[in-house]
Design brief:
By secondary structure, the protein is of the alpha/beta class. The chain has a single domain, classed as Rossmann fold. The chain has a seven-stranded parallel sheet, with helices on both faces. It is globular and about 60 Å long.
């Protein structure tokens, strides 16, 4: 096979699927990798002829190596999207040593393992890596183990960009804010107004959609961003820029 291939981990989720759909516009094959074999197989069943399902535990070094071998059978891998991730305990008081290890393994170490597995392929293609981090890696919004791992992922992004730039490899990160996905269903069930309540903290008065993240991935992994590497792009509807409510409190101006 000689076509271009993009690999998306954590592809069974809403964000992973949106990224895969967007990247299928300019790649011959999209490898949808996820630990949930059944879920990713269903996503690939008749949805998009360019989708190829793959089962992979990205916290397992051998699995990552097998994924790289499998992807190479479908063409030249020129985009690796490290999207797999999850948050567990909401506070330090609830965080156990095991939860801390699990969150670091999935949200930080896994990106290192996939990068090492695809290192040779990305050198050959002068490819691009996009790591899906989080605003939690840049400020405190709860889920401390997840957040610390995402902060590490942002720094790993810079490390790869600096050391592997000489091979033509670019590495960037995206830090989404609150994204409206199925993962929020439990919270929405407990509080049907959770998204409405969250809007007041976002200058754009809305939360992020999976397609917003996918569009940013397509840009950073594509030729239009050929001079961009080592950055972390916030896709957060303005959350990190500041809060109008707080500005209104201090300034006492109704313009906020």
């Amino acid at each position: 096979m000689t076509g271009t291939v993009a690999v998306v981990t954590g592809a069974a989720g809403d964000i992973g699927l949106a990224i895969a759909q967007r990247l299928s516009d300019n790649h011959d094959k999209i490898i949808l990798a996820d630990i949930d074999a059944e879920a990713v197989a269903k996503l690939c069943d008749g949805r998009n002829e360019r989708f190829v399902p793959a089962t992979c535990d990205v916290t397992n070094e051998a699995d990552c190596a097998e994924l790289a071998t499998f992807a190479a059978c479908h063409g030249s891998v020129n985009a690796l999207i490290n999207n797999a991730g999850a948050a567990r305990a909401a506070s330090l008081g609830e965080t156990t040593a095991e939860i801390n290890r699990q969150d670091i393994a999935l949200n930080l170490e896994a990106a290192f393992l996939t990068f090492k597995a695809f290192e040779t392929a990305l050198k050959k293609s002068r490819g691009s890596i996009v790591n899906i981090a989080s605003v939690n890696g840049l400020a405190v919004f709860g889920h401390p183990a997840y957040s610390a791992a995402k902060a590490g992922l942002i720094h790993l992004t810079k490390l790869i960009a600096v050391e592997y730039g000489k091979y033509g490899i670019r590495c960037n990160a995206i830090a989404p804010g609150t994204v409206k996905t199925q993962a929020w269903e439990a919270r929405a069930a407990a509080n049907p107004n959770v998204f409405e309540d969250a809007k007041r903290w976002y200058p754009l008065q809305r939360v992020v959609d999976p397609t917003d993240v996918a569009n940013a991935v397509a840009f950073l992994s594509g030729n239009e961003a050929s001079a961009i590497t080592g950055v972390c792009l916030a896709v957060d509807c303005g959350l990190l820029a500041g809060q109008a409510e707080l500005a209104r409190t201090f300034s006492q101006s109704d313009n906020y």
